[in-house]
Design goal:
By secondary structure, this protein is α/β, with parallel strands linked by helices. The chain contains 24 helices and 69 strands.
Length: 1443
């Protein structure tokens, strides 16, 4: 309908636009025939032509009857006493009174001046004005007549002007009954019926009225007079006259600022009011704010309203229009019925009684079919009636009832009609719609607010079913009610919303269908059948005595039509979503083809006490009326009376698919009989609910005796049995406050038995299994099927049943839940006993059973390991998986050992091929002229590597001055500012001090270099050592470059030395810990005492390099200069052998054990060195030199000259230049005193002042030294004597190196099995320290040359010992984990590598042992590389010197 309306309006718009265009282009089309009074205008175009385009073709109506003849027109000046002419302009300025019909016509304009009255106060008198020009009624001017007609180009009714035809009606149309008969004083009828105040007990108020309505067919162009009211006495007619008629038709604009009155006359207390007349206004445009009234007259009974029709295309007015009935003085609550107001352009009908209450109807007869009315408004206490049989009320827009309006269909005493109501919208506000018969309603939107729709189906089965269809929306608010005492179907495609308290839809049989959503708000009710509805043909018949339930309950029809033969009393069919916050109640409640149902905590769906009074399980009764309870799911309780029991009803029905009603007490002849519970079915076998969410209640309880308040004798019946709740659902959610109940009712107090419990069945559809399984039910609420209590000595009823559909494999119980963990179910069924325990021998000791989606259907049962660090299927750690893959711990160990040996052999062969002959011992005898003993190839100083050997340097050498300090970041190298006595003759003291300042400044380190060293010391000490050596090397190169090329040698006295930059040389030992400055003559000194001979230099201090640590052992470096000098007293071969033997002994000196290890050196000097050197008048002693402010001092040899072998050296120990606190190396009481020597000879003049002291057995005991933090590692890593078997040692080291790497990988795998955090801790504390020994060891084994191999082996040893920290971290992680987890899993396999078990410590401990053995073998390997002449350690001096 909306589409057709839109199309017609569009067509009309374009057609009118086209006609307006023609008028604009050729105005003659409108004005050519004005003189002939054949006006044409758009307003005058009555629309018949347009209506021909609507729908089907209909034959044209017969032409209207010709207008009645009228008298000749009056003239302006002669007859009307006006000014001007009617053909031009006529102004009436004097009042006139007429006694007969008046006709005024002309081609000009008529203007009635203000205050002028034209009156013809004769019933039915007519005043007609037909002007081609304009018509104006001046302010406060009045026209009074029975009929007033105005035809003009335009018309104006100015303020205060009046056209009044009230109570001046002529005769109403023939064959009408608008005027009442009799002497009841009833009102006249026209648009609405006249009221009647007669009280007739034999009639309903709706059946009593006065004058009847008429002229319905012409309400769009009303031209009828109103009717006279009745009288109360025969002698005189006191009834008010009817209203006249007003017809105004203008071509253009009409201004209504005055008033148009066609009201009925008042009848007073002795007569009825007359009915309103007719008013017709037609114009193109209307303005103003006047008043148009066709109301009924007041009287003993009020007259009915008249009819008003407005045909105006463009309305800009604020006109008040009144069509209400007159007041009834004899019955104030029953005014005359309202008339009709028809607005032609929007095709809208208004029936309004201006808030005057009435019981008298406004008749709405046949509605037009082409074109349809757009809107119908019934408002303000108007009461409308559609009295025709089988009629259709159809509008294109809305039907709006408001403010106490009543719309009735049919007659109360003849409820045998069927009505159709069709509209876009039915809007009801504080109003009532009554249907006597059946209603077929079809709207798009039905909105109700505090309104009622009452359907009385009567007793005729042909009209027992009403259908309400609202395709988009049905909303009930404010206690609105839809009531039917027969069958009612409510259909739609949108939403049905009962929004709040008091809203009600009820019928004997109620069907709601086809909605997208249904909401039953809080306090709202859906009910079927009616409460106390009585027993008649329309009340549903329950199937109480059927042994088998109707098939329609399980297989309902698909059409959702209202069918009185079906067992449902309330059905909701084909609805997507249902939200229940109120109440749904019925005997047989069925939800069919529903997707989701949500019942909130305030919601309830109930069939309690609405089942059978009798039934298959009805209770037995005594003759006095007392009996047992009804049975259903459980047997009813026995009743008791006077010492005797009588049985309750027996159980019946199928627990696996119940569909029976509950049974009652069985004594249905008594007023207090109890009924069983009804049945609630949600879904069907073919169409299950997708989901049911319940927080409220779902009840089908049996009725308790006396709970309805009915009073019977003290002898009472038993309770009714519970009904049935049958749920076909896919998923169910029961909230904490929810309850599903089919409990039995309680018996009477006098001994009635309790009713048996009902049945609840969950028929799950499409139970997902396997991986697709999802829990189909969440149950937090209550499910109750208990029997009712027996009162007195009556017995309680038995409990009912709660069942579910048979569950597939893996699931059990009513709600098809997964079998408990550790059980499996391989058969269909719901019994808990079907879930069998899984075999325990199939479960690994570190595993637990797990839940599986869909339950466990077969053995072995699925399980998982107790921790993610274990791996399926045996729940081994990653390490154990590796171990048991190769046959277990013992076999794996053997295989690993074999692989390690094999790889070590391959590695050794590859090493021999790669290294070649560099590893072979170089026992080549020294050539007589050679200056280096190759038996110890590491005696060359760094000076020999970096400088050119020049023999002449030793000839000009004056003195060697040693740097103080160990060359560390805390204590770098530095020179004392005072020049030694030996060089004072060849240097300028001031310039020397400046030279010392420059040297000391260059020797100092930057702060960031020490910071990097400190950081690396914490992270990885081998890297810190490498960084220190690199910084030392750069520092030495910087010093050498400064002395060699940057410094101008200004401190030297020799001009030649300053010019050639050859007087000073800076060198250092190979370990970069000892540096010295050599002073040389320039050749131009011209002094014969320089350079001094060796005997003049005695005693000479020879300082050791190194510091006694593993990486830098003590050693005496003898370069060319020192060798040349010593050769002046000692043969070079003797000196070389002495140095080699001494260095071999110094290798064994350990920092932290200087007292013991230096004792062996002193003994060696006394047994091997001094006896041989005494032959050449030389003696060497171990001594300490150059103590620094921090306490660091150098160690070395003090070489002195002696007179003979028995003489002891006379040495002056001069240490007074240092304060006591700066001399920590030797205790003051142990310093050598000159008085301790045997004698003082002339050689004391040759001795120099040396700062330090000689170390001997007594002074060693008082020697103090500080142990570093890494001192404990010196017991593992230290320099040892060579052991030989170099290839074997290399092979064993290769095996241990590979074994170490394998253990490291296994340990890391073990830590990863514990946790990723433990893995990262072991790996990164110290960072990657546990992995670096392997590449360091490979690099050492495959290096060329003994020197390089020994150096890399020391780094390898350093990485090896450093990695012990990582091993300790691994041990602590394992210990912590074992301490926290050992009690959780007591079952474990013997001899495995799991850190959970008692062997967690094996890998860390094995790694520690492997690293300690590696450390010792590396020491032997280093010794084999550095000491290839084993005779250096001979205890026999002769063997030592002869080798």
């Amino acid at each position: 309908m909306a589409h057709t309306s839109s199309t017609s309006y569009t067509f009309k718009f374009f057609l009118l636009s086209f006609l307006l265009l023609l008028v604009t282009l050729n105005p003659s089309l409108c004005f050519a025939n004005i003189d002939n009074n054949e006006e044409f205008s758009i307003v005058g175009y009555d629309g018949d032509f347009l209506d021909a385009f609507h729908g089907d073709y209909t034959p044209p109506s017969p032409p209207p009857p010709p207008p009645p003849p009228h008298p000749p027109s009056l003239t302006c000046e002669d007859d009307l006493y006006g000014i001007g002419s009617l053909n031009t302009s006529c102004v009436l300025n004097s009042s006139l009174i007429f006694i007969d019909d008046v006709y005024i016509a002309g081609n000009g304009s008529l203007y009635i001046a203000p205050g002028v009255n034209l009156s013809c106060a004769v019933l039915g008198c007519s005043i007609m004005v037909n002007m081609s020009g304009g018509f104006s009624l001046g302010s406060y001017s009045v026209i009074v007549a029975g009929s007033v007609s105005v035809y003009a180009w335009n018309a104006s009714l100015f303020e205060g002007s009046v056209i009044n035809v009230s109570a001046l009606a002529g005769m109403p149309p023939a064959q009408t009954s608008g005027t009442p008969s009799g002497v009841q004083g009833a009102g006249g009828g026209h648009g609405g019926r006249g009221a009647s105040c007669v009280l007739d007990n034999t009639k309903l108020p709706d059946d009593v009225w006065g004058g009847d309505a008429y002229s319905w067919s012409s309400l769009d162009a009303p031209a009828s007079f109103g009717s006279r009211g009745g009288t109360t006495v025969k002698e005189e007619n006191y009834g008010g006259e009817g209203g006249g008629k007003i017809w105004i038709e203008v071509n253009t604009t009409m201004e209504v600022s005055g008033s148009l009155f066609a009201d009925g006359g008042d009848g007073g207390v002795k007569g009825g009011g007359g009915s309103g007349g007719s008013i017709f206004v037609k114009a193109q445009r209307m303005t103003g704010s006047g008043r148009i009234s066709a109301t009924g007259g007041d009287g003993f009974a009020g007259g009915g309203g008249g009819r008003v029709s407005i045909h105006v295309f463009s309305r800009h007015d604020d006109t008040q229009i009144f069509i209400h009935g007159g007041r009834s003085l004899g019955c104030p609550d029953n005014s005359g019925a309202a008339g009709t107001y028809y607005d032609a352009v929007p095709r809208s009908l208004v029936v309004s009684n201006h808030n005057r209450s009435t019981t008298t109807d406004t008749l709405l007869l046949e509605f037009p079919k082409q074109p349809l009315w757009t809107n119908v408004h019934i408002e303000n206490h108007a009461k409308a009636l559609v009295p025709l049989f089988w009629s259709r009320v159809q509008v294109q827009g809305q039907i709006h009832l408001s403010t106490g309006a009543v719309l009735s269909f049919g007659l109360a005493h003849f409820a045998t009609s069927e009505f159709e109501l069709m509209a876009e919208e039915l809007l009801m506000s504080d109003s009532v719609v009554k249907i006597f018969g059946a209603l077929r309603m079809s709207v798009k939107m039905h909105l109700m607010w505090n309104s009622k729709m009452l359907i009385d189906g009567g007793s005729d089965s042909l009209v027992a079913t009403s259908l309400l269809e609202a395709s988009n929306l049905v909303v009930l608010k404010g206690s609105s009610v839809i009531h039917s005492n027969a069958n009612l179907g409510v259909h739609g495609q949108g939403f049905l919303n009962l929004s709040g308290p008091g809203n009600l839809i009820q019928a004997q049989r109620l069907i709601l269908s086809l909605f997208y959503s249904v909401k039953v708000g809080p306090g709202s009710v859906l009910r079927g059948p009616l409460e106390n509805g009585g027993i008649n043909d329309t009340r549903p018949r329950l199937y109480c005595e059927l042994a088998e339930c109707p098939v329609e309950l399980l297989h309902p029809p698909e059409d959702c039509n209202v069918n009185s033969t079906l067992p449902f009393t309330l059905q909701i069919c084909r609805v997507e979503d249902i939200l229940v916050e109120g109440t749904i109640t019925g005997s047989v409640v069925h939800f069919h083809w529903i997707r989701n149902v949500v019942v909130q905590s305030s919601g309830a769906i109930s069939a309690s006490g609405l089942g059978c009074i009798g039934g298959l399980g009805k209770g037995r009764i005594f003759e006095i009326g007392l009996g047992g309870g009804g049975g259903h799911g459980g047997k009813g309780g026995d009743g008791y009376y006077n010492g005797s029991f009588i049985e309750g009803g027996g159980a019946y029905g199928d627990a696996d698919l119940p569909c029976e009603l509950g049974s009652g007490s069985g004594n249905d002849s008594l007023a207090g009989a109890t009924a069983g519970g009804g049945i609630i079915i949600m879904g069907s076998i073919e169409h299950s609910l997708s989901s049911l969410s319940l927080d409220g209640s779902l009840r089908a309880d049996g009725e308790t005796s006396g709970e309805d308040g009915r009073t019977i004798s003290s002898i009472g019946p038993g309770g009714g049995s519970g009904g049935t709740i049958l749920l076909f659902v896919r998923s169910l959610a029961l909230g904490g406050s929810s309850i599903i109940s089919t409990g039995g009712g309680h018996g009477s107090n006098s001994g009635g038995g309790g009713g048996g419990g009902g049945r609840i069945h969950f028929h799950w559809s499409d139970i997902p299994v396997g991986d697709a399984y999802l829990p189909i039910a969440s149950v937090k609420g209550s499910i109750y099927t208990g029997g009712g209590f027996g009162k007195g000595q009556g017995r309680a009823g038995e409990n009912g049943t709660v069942t579910g559909k048979a569950c597939p494999k893996g699931l059990f119980g009513t709600f098809c839940e997964e079998c408990p963990v550790g059980t499996f179910k391989n058969v269909s069924g719901s019994d808990r006993a079907f879930c069998h325990h899984c075999p325990s021998h199939e479960l690994p000791h570190r595993a637990i059973y797990i839940t599986v989606r869909g339950g466990v259907t077969e053995t072995p049962c699925p399980y998982k390991c107790v921790s993610d660090r274990y791996h399926m299927p045996h729940c081994y750690t990653a390490l154990e998986e590796l171990v048991y893959t190769f046959g277990g711990p013992w076999l794996f160990s053997l295989i690993l050992l074999g692989i390690l040996i094999l790889l070590a052999l391959v590695l050794s062969v590859a090493r021999m091929k790669f290294v070649g002959g560099d590893e072979l011992p170089a026992l080549v005898p020294a050539r007589p002229g050679s200056r280096i003993d190759h038996s110890f190839p590491f005696l060359e100083s760094l000076n020999e590597v970096l400088e050119t050997n020049r023999t002449e340097e030793s000839q000009g050498h004056v003195h060697r001055m040693y740097f103080m300090g160990p060359n560390t970041f805390k204590e770098p190298w530095h020179l004392p500012h005072s020049p030694p006595e030996q060089v004072k003759e060849i240097v300028y003291e001031d310039a020397f001090n400046r030279f010392v300042n420059d040297i000391n400044g260059l020797a100092a380190y930057q702060w960031w270099e020490g910071s990097v060293y400190s950081i690396l010391s914490l992270l990885a000490y081998p890297l810190a050592w490498s960084w220190l050596q690199q910084c030392r090397k750069k520092k030495l190169q910087r010093l050498r470059e400064f002395v060699r090329s940057e410094y101008d040698h200004a401190c030297l006295r020799s001009c030649r030395s300053r010019a050639l930059y050859e007087g000073l040389k800076v060198s250092a030992t190979s370990d970069l810990m000892l540096a010295y400055v050599d002073f040389f003559l320039g050749g131009d000194e011209k002094r014969t005492d320089l350079p001094p001979r060796i005997h003049q230099r005695f005693p000479i201090s020879l300082v050791f390099g190194g510091d006694g640590s593993y990486m830098a052992p003590f050693s005496l470096h003898s370069d060319n200069i020192l060798t040349s000098l010593m050769s002046q007293s000692i043969p070079p071969t003797i000196w070389y052998r002495l140095v080699a033997g001494l260095n071999a002994q110094l290798r064994l000196v350990r920092r932290g054990q200087l007292k013991i290890s230096f004792g062996h050196v002193i003994s060696w000097l006394e047994t091997h060195a001094n006896p041989t050197l005494s032959t050449y008048g030389v003696r060497v002693d171990l001594a300490w030199f150059q103590p620094t402010a921090s306490g660091y001092c150098h160690f070395g040899l003090l070489v002195c000259a002696i007179e003979n072998e028995s003489a002891q050296p006379l040495i002056e120990i001069q240490d007074t230049s240092l304060p006591p606190e700066q001399q920590p190396c030797l205790h003051r009481s142990d310093r050598v005193d000159p008085l301790d020597h045997l004698r003082v000879s002339e050689h004391s003049m040759m001795c120099k002042k040396i700062f330090g002291g000689i170390l001997h057995a007594k002074s060693l005991r008082m020697l103090k030294e500080k142990n570093a933090i890494c001192y404990p590692f010196s017991f593992i890593v230290n320099n040892t004597k060579p052991v030989g078997h170099q290839d074997l040692v290399g092979l064993v080291i290769s095996i241990l190196l590979l074994g170490d790497f394998s253990l490291v990988l296994l340990t890391l795998l073990q830590m990863y099995s514990i946790s990723l955090l433990d893995f990262l801790l072991v790996l990164l504390v110290l960072p990657l320290g546990v992995l670096f020994p392997f590449p360091a060891g490979i690099s050492a084994l495959f290096s060329h040359g003994p020197r390089r191999s020994a150096g890399l082996a020391r780094v390898y040893a350093l990485w090896n010992i450093t990695s012990l920290i990582n091993v300790v971290v691994a041990f602590m992680c394992g210990l912590l984990h074992y301490a926290t987890h050992s009690k959780k899993h007591l079952n474990f396999q013997s001899w495995n590598f799991s850190v959970d078990e008692s062997e967690w410590w094996m890998l860390p401990c094995g790694l520690v042992l492997c690293k300690i053995i590696q450390a010792r073998l590396i020491d032997c390997h280093v010794a084999n590389q550095e000491i290839q002449d084993f005779s250096l350690y001979s205890s026999d001096p002769d063997v030592f010197w002869q080798s």
